[in-house]
Amino acid sequence: MSLLQIAEPNQSAKPHEHKYALGIDLGTTRSMVAVVRSGKAALLETADAKTKDNLLPSVVYYGTANDTNAPIVGSEALSYFETDPVNTIISAKRFMGRSVKDIKFSHPYQLKSSETSADAMPSFVTGQGNVSPVEVSADILRTLKDRAQRALPDDSIQGAVITVPAYFDEAQRQATKDAAQLAGLKVLRLLNEPTAAAVAYGLDRAAGSSDEAQQERLFLIYDLGGGTFDVSLLKMNEGVFEVLATGGNSALGGDDMDRQIMGWLLKQANLNPKDLTAQQRTHIARQAEGFKQALTHRDRVDVSIDIADIEWSGTLTAVDLIQIVEPITRRTLATCEQVMRDAGVSIEQLDEIILVGGSTRMPVVQQAVEQFFNKTPLSHLNPDEVVALGAAQVADQLIKKDKSNNVLLLDVTPLSLGLETMGGLVEVVIPRNTPIPVAKKQTFTTYQDGQTGMVVHVVQGERDTVEHCRSLGRFELYGIPPMKAGLARIEVTFDIDANGQLSVSAFEATSGVKSDIKITPSYGLSDEQQEQLLRAGFENAAQDKLSRSLIEAKVEAEREVLALQSALQEFGALLSDTEVTDLQQAMSALSDSLNQVSSSLNAEPEQLQQLKADVEAKQAVLKPLSDTFAARIMDQSVKQSLAGTSTESW
Ligand code: ADP
Ligand code: MG
């Protein structure tokens, strides 16, 4: 008889075996994986034969130029970009969780809309078939996972922490998780990139070691990558990180510098960009990137252009570069200023500035930041790697369940989340900037007698009316027992988990009917749109207040008309014919005014005031008539109940 190997559940049969968790920075331009070994976080060798560095270009080639007919990932894929751009997917991250109507930036790809929903992500049409952005990300993640598996002992990887920009919405986060799942990676947590950078610099612990420990500390994370600029304000208080505010520009980064440098080169060489083919421009832009990177370590670099019968060579100096990229650094700093102003934070209040992203290695960027903030930014860790290093530390804490240094990495909701209520109004359930994870419950009721179903429509945004907010999804709750309007008690719960993912459930309390459906978020919301929604909320506050009061008056009046209609059916005989006619006339006059309200909700304030006055006037006419009617009904029911009492008592 053989012996069974016995181990406690959840415990390894080999107690001394090491367990690892990966920290993955899934970047727009480059991706990488880090892990904590012997207490120290470091990037894993991704053994890229060509670049010999540990950063994996976030590029996948799906063409047929090679014979393998399988996707090629990384720097080898990048080499196809000039010759076969349509099949070389770069910056897939920008397409994650976006619908066709969200994709406003230019790109060389042919997109195919989803057949199931207009809100779903489109696919790239490639030589190897249609591939969704999620699949592209999955191919990148799979490559990183394979390399990590080769570098670490067999079966030792417990999962991964994957970083996402702080402004990523539900759809974008879900798409990222889907990609990880497709790549066979267990996601321990999605982590905001700026928070990861702060962890890498040990800012979660630094405060705990001194007397100032209990004080709040503020950090600004300046992340200038290849195609995007992100700025985040983090607050650290008693071991808890909170994202106070985020901002940025999804079309500003190192690529723009390359284009500016290209413009400078063409001007020097007396070339008109219009005379060049797209391929030639791509070629020069890539050359420009090389010159730019060389200037990070040198004061001057020899430059040359050799295309279209024209040969030109010259010198590009660090001083030229300051001039060339000045418009870009200026815009990043203006964004920083805006974010601080929104959050009510001044430069003097900032405890640290952290530089993240490949472009912050440039001395010109470092100097501009230092000058603006009047403070030397933290940059001693490699700005390319900090996000992955921080993610690896959090991943390690999560698998060790390290209680001694259990950083609660709090984030906040970027936009308010709420429900549609009668009249197209938004009832906010979780306000903007609420720390997550969070769960909130709110009770709603039915509007009509005998109503047995209800649509729960979840929206995101700062405006008071649904049409000005973004629809996240809707579901239905059925099986509410028929009751008088207002008696049902429907509890709707909004739950946002630590990854920033939202689920909404509804429950009717008197009957116990439940519908804990998870909402499928409609895909897409760019940071510009998010910014727009936010700004719209501030700019339209007064107008919103007016339309809200008008809509509230309208909903109330409609409820009155409905109640009167059902009363007329039941008790109409209590009124004379003229009384019925008068009542019906007053009701239809009010209904007419109400219809007008519905079609003019976007009118000018004066007109809204006028509409409201009109509704109130019609209500004033109706009131005495409906009061008389109500009194009759009362009389009758009192008589009936008296009659009832008498029969019973006799
Ligand atoms: P992302 O987060 O968008 O993936 P990265 O943080 O990897 O981007 O940054 C990529 C950008 O950094 C590219 O524009 C690249 O040219 C630039 N970059 C990388 N190294 C250097 C360097 N040594 N000097 C200047 N720019 C650099
Ligand atoms: Mg990045």
TrEMBL record:
Protein name, UniProt field: Chaperone protein HscA homolog
Family matches, as Pfam families: HSP70
Alphabetical list of Gene3D superfamilies matching this protein: 1.20.1270.10, 3.30.420.40, Actin, Chain A, domain 4, Substrate Binding Domain Of DNAk, Chain A, domain 1
GO molecular-function terms, A-Z: ATP binding; ATP hydrolysis activity; ATP-dependent protein folding chaperone; unfolded protein binding
Protein task: Chaperone involved in the maturation of iron-sulfur cluster-containing proteins. Has a low intrinsic ATPase activity which is markedly stimulated by HscB.
Lineage of the species this protein comes from: Bacteria, Pseudomonadati, Pseudomonadota, Gammaproteobacteria, Moraxellales
InterPro entries: ATPase_NBD (IPR043129), Heat_shock_70_CS (IPR018181), HSP70_C_sf (IPR029048), HSP70_peptide-bd_sf (IPR029047), Hsp_70_fam (IPR013126), ISC_FeS_clus_asmbl_HscA (IPR010236)
Keywords assigned: ATP-binding, Chaperone, Nucleotide-binding
Classification via SUPFAM superfamilies: Actin-like ATPase domain, Heat shock protein 70kD (HSP70), C-terminal subdomain, Heat shock protein 70kD (HSP70), peptide-binding domain
